[in-house]
Amino acid sequence: MLLYHDPRAPNPRRVRVFLAEKGVAYDTIEVLISEKAHQTPEFRKKNPIALLPVLELADGRVLRESMAICRFVEESHPEPNMFGADAWERAQIEMWNRHAELELLLPIAQVFRNTHKFWEGRIKQAPEFAEVMREHVAERLEWLDGELGRRSFMGGDRFSVADITAMCALDFGKVVDIRLNRETHPNLHAWHKRVSERPSAKA
User: d(Cα 163, Cα 104) in Å, to the nearest integer?
Assistant: First the structure.
């Protein structure tokens, strides 16, 4: 398997962490967004909308969405299980992974896209919208802190793909000064410490 990725982007990191948890071997090709490598005609043949990551199989087939890649790997390498072992656990992990995507990763990405100097002159920016998203994340951090006072991980009592998404989202938030506070988010802070100590977090 060949993973096209940018080392600094959160979605490719989600896939790398997942692959590390699975212990699956793969090769990589760096496609640096800062150098507009994702916009080249060659890469657009892999993904016409120029997003990362992209997973290419030995037979030339391509997957180009983070969770689709992770689900494919889960089916191909079932252990350790990362998406749920039965119907209830699968539903819980799916729910919390979607919460991590929609309530953390997406709004944090919008703050980044609409305020960071990296995007100046590259895209149209709306700083007012970014502030709305920043407030949204602050509210969701308070909510998640309460949730994680009742269990050890996002989707239950064990590490799953939902923890990977949430960890990558919050780590990416540091780029736009969205950070956990040990005093106001003690449960989230403790959770983040647990997941960040896993070897896969360095992938």
Answer: 12
Dump pLDDT digits (tens) for 145-156.
999 999 999 999
Report DSSP letters for 87-101, one per residue: HHHHHHHHHHHHHII
Residue 60 three-state SS: coil
* C-alpha to C-alpha distance for 63 and 24, rounded to whole angstroms: 16
Mapped onto helix, strand or coil, the DSSP state of residue 184 is: coil
Domain spans of the chain, in order of start: 2-76, 87-202
Length of the chain: 203
Question: Which of 168, 169, 49, 177 shows the shortest CA–CA distance to 115?
Answer: 177
- What Cα–Cα distance (Å) separates residue 64 from each residue in 46, 68, 112? 8, 7, 22
The CATH number fitting domain 2-76, selected from 2.40.50.840, 3.20.190.10, 3.40.30.10, 3.30.70.260 = 3.40.30.10
| Domain 87-202 class, CATH top level | mainly alpha
The token duo for 44 is: 């657009």
**H-only helix segments in 121-160:** 127-147
Which residue in 201, 202, 84 sits closest to 154, CA to CA? 84
pTM of the model: 0.96
